[in-house]
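Let's practice the habit of predicting before peeking. Look at the sequence and jot down your guess about where helices and strands might fall. Then scroll down.
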Amino acid sequence: MSDEMALGLDEAYAVKTPEDNRRLYAKWAATYESSFVDAKQYRYPKAISEVFNEHVPLDSDEVARVIDIGCGTGLTGMYLSHLRSKLEIDGLDISPEMLEEARRKKRADDSAVYSHLNECDLTQPVVNRFESYDALICSGTFTHGHLGPDALKNVLALVRPAGWIVIGVNNEHFVGKDFQAELDSLANAKQITAPEILKIDVYEKGSPHFGDQARVILAQII
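Done guessing? Here is the structure:
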């Protein structure tokens, strides 16, 4: 088995720094979907897209703009574009190799899922290159070895006032890193509304990891 095919959750959870992250996903990008998403029946991008579709009201008469942070190979954007075909979706990720995979993702009409894809270290405050977004979505990025609760404030400026954030956080990571305290602080500072927290399954039934869950933060920017 190649090094790329052998990569998985243990390696992903073990990264410590942004450079560790870049090195891991440079090796893993080309086989990430076959060796992990398909092999482990990983449904997180699909599940969070369904939460977004069910809970986020956006004006259907205008083209709403969404930023997918930590977009990886683009699965979240792809699923979301199938549910909300009129959305204009941009993506950010720390790995240029993962972004190359995301560029290949297509909508139902065979057009590109993402309008713009840019490399970005989300452990630092993010400067928006474009007009503020109507919503932000994120799956699989706030987890062990990746982003902690202190990174939440780094991305809020990407979204317009009254715009939405839909951010998934690994359940154990949410508790262990006390994301609730950071959310309470952001709400008390009038940066976001009091968040609604939902739970979703990260893997399909039959997966060796079935039972692992994520919490989804739903809130609006103030």
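How did you do? The CA atoms of residues 82 and 108 lie 6 Å apart.
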